[in-house]
Amino acid sequence: MSFEPSQKLTFPVPIYVRQLSEAFACEQPSTAKANQARKNTLAVWAVYNYLKLMGIRADLTTSDSWNPIMRWATNSADLNIQNVGRLECRPMDPEASSCLVPPEVWCDRIGYVAVALSPTWDWATLVGFTPTVNGSEVTVASLQPLSQLLDQLYALQVPLNWIVQPHIQLSQWLTGIFEAGWESVETLLSTLNPPPAYPMRSVMLAAAAAPPIREHLPKGLRRAKLMTLRSGLESCPVVLVIYIEATSSRIRLMVQVYPGSQQFTLPPELALQVIDEKGTPFLTARSQRADSYMQLQFWGSLGEPFATALRWKGAETIEHFVI
Fold this sequence. Notes:
By secondary structure, this protein is α+β, with helices and mostly antiparallel strands. It has helices spanning 15-26, 31-53, 68-73, 146-156, 170-173, 185-191, and strands at 9-12, 58-59, 78-81, 85-92, 98-100, 111-117, 123-130, 137-139, 168-169, 221-231, 234-246, 251-259, 271-275, 281-286, 294-300, 305-312, 315-322.
C-alpha cells in the first residue's frame, strides 16, 4: 500500500495545538530551549496528523517529545509509531534548503521527516522523508517523497499472528538443549568460507560496547543462526546471535547481528527489532553505512516471550522466543 502523490503536504495548525506548544515552551529554562520545544511540538503534531489521516497509529503520549523531562534534557522531536518504532520529525524554516538533525537522534529512529513551519506558527508543511541521516544536515533536494515514508511504515509493521508461532525455549539453552539451526558461534563460523572478520564499529544502542562475535563470554552462552533475507534478485545473509545470561534475579539477553558473508559490514537499511508479547517493538536499530554489527540489550524473566525481527528492502524474518 502506498500514497501516490509525492508533492509536499501542508496542514493548518489548530489554535489548541499552538497553545500546547506554548505551554511546552514555557517549561524551558531559556529562550533557545523554549523555541526548540515550540518548533518540535508543532512538527511532531503535523506528522501525527498526517499519519492519522493515512490510517497509521501513532502515540504522542509515549514519545520523548511529549515527555517534560525529555523535552528539557534533549532535542528530540520523535513520534512513537505503534508496532514500528520512533519517527523523528525535524522542524525547519520554509525557505531553508536543508534541515538540521542533532546527533542525539541519529540512532534509534526508523526515519526522519522534515517539517517546514510558517513564521506565524499556523501552518506546517511536510517537506519529505529520509530513512537515515549521515550527518547533522539533510538537504531538501535529497529528501524522498512522503509515499516512501508510508511504504516503509507499512513494511515495518509487525504481523498480527506472530504470537501464535512456535517459540524457542531459551531456558533450555542453559541446560544444554538447543533447537535445530542454532549452533555455537565457533561451529557456525567454521562453515562460512572464508569466515568473516568483524571490525569493532557499531551503531550501539545497548548500555555497554558490543563484543566482537569471536569473544568468549564466560558468564553466559551464545548461539548463532545464519539467516538470509531475499528481496527480488538481491539477498542479504546475516548471522543472528542470541546471548543469554542467568543472574540471581533476572535474565540478561543480548541480540546481535553480524554480516553473514565475506562482507565486513552490514548492508545499509537493515532493521533489527525486539518485540514484546503484545507484538509491540520496544527496541529498534537500523544499520548505517560502514556498521560492522548491531546489538540490542535488555533484561527479562523466566517464561516471558519476545521476538526478534530482521527487515531489509521489504523482506523480513521473525524468530520467536520464550525465556
